Amino acid sequence: MKKLALLLTTLLLALGLVYPGGAGRAAAASAPAYTEIATFVEGNLLISPAKSVLVNGSAYVPVKLAGQIPGFTVAADATGVTLTGSKGSTKLKKDNSILYKNTNYVAFKTLLKLGAIDGKYASSAIALFVWSTEDGKNKSNSMLYAISKLPGTMGIVLGKKVYLYGHPGSHWVKSVQYVDDNNQNFVMQNEAGTEWVLDLNDFVDNTMYTMENIDYLKYYYNGLTVWTRNAMITDSPFKNFEKATIANFRPNPANGNLEMIIRRANGQEVPLKIEPRDDPSEYVEEVLFFKNPQTNFKISDKMWSAIREERAVSGMTITELLLSWGDPDEVYDGYVVYGDQYVYFINDKVFSIVNL
Fold first, then answer.
1. Under 8 Å between Cβ of 173 and 158
2. 161-198: per-residue pLDDT in tens?
3. I need a labelling partner for 269 at 20 to 30 A (CA). Which of 40, 184, 311, 344 fits?
4. DSSP string computed for 207-223
5. How many Cα atoms sit within 13 Å of 59 on the Cβ side?
């Protein structure tokens, strides 16, 4: 499977010009108490707004989903909620259930005691597999084996609603098809309920993302003041290092591309496609600065005006040139090359610019 190469701005990183936008919020972030997990019964994904959850290492299933497991019934009356399986019944109470997002959940270990079922939590897929028949067990184990063959952490998208570059709308990852030692496919279901197969052999695996990815970006960046770095923005509509605000992140409904919404001072909102990669925040931090470069580097008004107009002028420092034109194509002792333009330095300042 192919991997997109990360676009590293090595010169800028060496000079410390790129700043982590979420650094101020990192200390406030904490691990969630509840981890939502997918639920598969007899090898089939249960698609529902309410997900099973993992709490302190124990799995809990929404009561509504428990009623979809073969052999179980759910009844509610004035005295509470009762679950019944082939081995007995129990009422929901403090030691066998939790309340999460205003939904009742029952402990999976309680279901194991009440019904003729078995199951397994797969950490590589963040998913709970439940079965009651030999066929269901075989389907579940077949999928678990296919997951084990996936590279890296790709298994965690199983059972999740995802967005894909080049594919409109959202899609559920319903199962993994094991093809051979080097090939697996995802069986997908779109918003209309149509199933289709994603060939992972031809798929760049870091062009798929989840709502959790979007929520992470929103938490870290929404509302932050930024300065746009035109050297890294294709066909930038901004003035170089224009002051703006990160307004939002969203999937483009027409093509599935992940976008960052930048709000200009006049209120105009401009969508920027986040180039596909393993960590979308890397792109955010490549194309934006989170500190005012003029203030941070004590740049004179004259040089700042040239930088804003993306011009290179005599007397510029290396830092100022990089801010104006970005990374050079080639670096030599005493000069750098941008296309057909050669920029020469004396005492670490631009001396002359030669067009060839």
1. yes
2. 999 999 999 999 999 988 877 778 899 999 999 999 99
3. 311
4. GEEEHHHHHHHHHHHTT
5. 22
Task: Count the neighbouring beta carbons within 10 Å of the beta carbon of residue 164.
Answer: 24
| DSSP character string of 75-99 | EEETTEEEEEETTEEEE--TTTEEE
Give the DSSP letter string of 230-249.
GGGSTT--SPTT-EEEEEEE
Tokens of 137: 């067990």
Which parts of the chain fold into alpha helices (H)?
10-15, 23-26, 63-66, 108-114, 134-148, 211-221, 280-287, 293-296, 301-308, 318-325
Query: How far is CA 19 from each of CA 149, 197, 273, 282, rounded to the nearest angstrom?
Result: 37, 40, 20, 11
Predicted confidence (pLDDT) per residue in 72-114, tens digit: 999 988 889 999 999 999 999 999 999 998 999 999 999 999 9
Q: If you ran DSSP here, which 8-state letter would residue 253 be given?
A: T
- Cα–Cα distance, 314 to 321 (Å, whole number): 10
Residues sharing a CB contact under 8 Å with residue 242, sequence separation 6 or more, in sequence order: 227, 228, 264, 265
d(CA 240, CA 317): 17
pTM comes to 0.79
Q: How far apart are CA 356 and CA 354, in angstroms?
A: 6
> 163 to each of 3, 71, 153, 175, 286, how far by Cα in Å?
18, 35, 17, 16, 23
Rounded CA-CA distance 306/240 in Å is 10
Please answer whether residues 146 and 178 qualify as being in contact, where contact means their C-beta atoms are separated by less than 8 angstroms: yes
C-alpha distances out from residue 324 to 11, 120, 309, 318, Å: 13, 56, 8, 10
- The contacts of residue 256 (CB under 8 Å, 6+ apart) are 163, 164, 165, 166, 167, 168, 169
Residue 160's CB is within 10 A of a number of other CB atoms, namely 23
Instruction: Indicate the SS3 state at residue 254.
Output: coil
